[in-house]
Write a structure and sequence with these properties.
Layout: H1 2-41, E1 53-59, E2 63-65, E3 70-78, E4 84-86, E5 90-92, E6 97-101, E7 107-109, E8 114-123, E9 132-144, E10 151-164, H2 168-175, H3 183-198, H4 217-241, H5 254-289, H6 297-306, E11 312-313, E12 315-318, E13 321-325, E14 334-339, E15 341-345, H7 353-360, H8 364-376, E16 380-384, E17 394-397, E18 410-411, E19 413-414
Parallel strand pairs: 2-10, 15-19
Antiparallel strand pairs: 1-3, 3-8, 4-7, 4-9, 5-9, 6-8, 9-10, 11-18, 12-13, 13-14, 14-17, 15-16
Helix pairs in contact: 3-4, 3-5, 6-8
């Protein structure tokens, strides 16, 4: 009995094993050829050179200056064992910046070598460069024409450049202004004081610094205000009288600097000249009616000059002194009069003959200026002659000038 059971079990197991072996052979026969066929049908992947050619833009200097071209170099580094043909690079830049390659033909980049391509950076025709930072780029096409593996690709490089105006940074350093936007007001205010100094008489306390002034905080307020007004109206002026509208709040170029510089100085000259005309008119009006008691001698001569009066006046001898009549118009029982102006040398080396011709001459402007210079250098002291209580222009009774001879005139300035 056990032998029969073992025989039946062996017969059943052998049949199952035979079926499994047969199925495995069938699968092996069918699949192996197909896998081989599939492997033979996959095309070869194209060869890649990504990351094997490096590009860099090198600038000639840190700043690209408006008004002239700058040089740059596109540096290509081949880290492979392959040879590439490099087409002329094309540029990527803002519309106002033009980048061109000096070489218009293709170049060869040898294995494990460096290729330098020169570029020229300039301002595009018909545009205006804006100062500040800009991003530029260059793209070079690479190719390798081998029969078995043809290949094409591109390599790119970018660079941040700073556009500026020639000499502007040096000007800002000299004037000690942090921004170009403050330049219009500073130029206008400084020019105004310079023009005003031309028409301001020299005094005993300040004759050599007629064109100098102390820059105080309130002047910064004036300068910033003037700059704001100029910045506001500049786009209006450029759009009305220029080819394009310009706004220096967002950048400026060389033409903007020239326009602002000339315009600010012209505005300062106009303001200073206007001040001089107004001051001259006021002095003439006041001078026709009255003088100022206690006036400084040089200020008095400047008043005579402004009202077109000569320094040669009629006078009356009172003892050993002289009293000069300043206004011969009817003024009731009084007249304006002043004592002599005395020139006292302070330096022994001073020669009175140096100014004798001016004292005897008729040009009061030259005389006043020369006295101001000599006083400023410490050679002379200019003061009123001691005439009792009369110090400078004073209203005196008409009887005091009773001895006056209308035909006699001499210079009120006496050495």
């Amino acid at each position: 009995m056990p032998a029969l059971i073992a025989l039946i079990w062996y017969s059943y197991l052998g049949r199952a094993l035979r079926r499994a072996l047969g199925l495995g052979c069938v699968i092996l026969i069918l699949c192996v050829p197909r896998v081989a066929t599939s492997q033979n049908s996959v095309p070869a992947a194209p060869e890649t050179v990504a990351g094997t050619v490096n590009a860099e833009i090198i600038l000639d200097g840190e700043t690209f200056l408006d008004g002239r071209e700058s040089a740059a170099i596109l540096k290509l580094v081949n880290l492979t064992d392959q040879t590439f043909t490099v087409s002329p690079p094309r540029s990527i830049a803002p519309p106002e910046i033009q980048i061109t390659a000096e070489k218009a033909t293709s170049s060869t980049l040898a294995p494990r070598s460096v290729l330098l391509l020169r570029l020229r950076i300039g301002v595009a025709p018909g545009t205006a460069l804006i100062s500040g930072k800009h991003i530029i780029g260059a793209v070079a096409a690479l190719s390798r024409n081998t029969p078995d593996h043809p290949w094409t690709g591109e390599v790119a490089a970018t660079k941040e450049i700073t556009a500026g105006v020639p000499g502007m940074s040096e000007v800002q350093n000299v004037l000690q202004i942090p921004s170009f936007l403050l330049l219009p007001g500073l130029l206008t205010v400084a020019t105004f004081f310079a023009v005003r100094g031309m028409f301001t008489p020299a005094t005993t306390s300040d004759s050599t610094s007629r064109f100098a002034f102390v820059w105080q905080p309130w002047l910064w307020i004036v300068a910033i205000t003037v700059s704001g007004v100029i910045i506001f109206i500049y786009p209006i002026i450029t759009s009305s009288f220029g080819p394009i509208r310009r706004n220096i709040l967002y950048g400026y170029n060389l033409s903007d600097v020239i326009n602002i510089w000339i315009g600010s100085i012209a505005l300062g000259v106009f303001a200073g000249a206007l001040w001089a005309v107004i001051a001259y008119g006021i002095a003439r009006i006041r001078g026709k009616h009255r003088y100022s008691a206690g006036e400084d001698p040089l200020e008095f001569l400047e008043r005579l000059e402004r009202i077109a009066h000569t320094h040669k006046l009629t006078f009356a001898d009172i003892g050993d002194k002289r009293l000069y009549q300043l206004n011969d118009k009817e003024m009731g029982a009084t007249r304006w009069a002043a004592p002599s102006i005395r020139l006292i040398p302070r330096d022994r080396s001073f020669d009175p003959r140096k100014i004798a011709d001016l004292v005897e001459g008729d040009n009061i402007a030259d005389l006043r200026k020369e006295l101001g210079v000599r006083t400023g250098t410490g050679e002379l002291t200019v003061q009123w002659d001691n005439f009792g209580t009369i110090r400078g222009p004073t209203l005196v009774p008409l009887e005091t000038l009773a001895d006056l001879d209308p035909q006699r005139r001499e210079s009120i300035v006496q050495q």
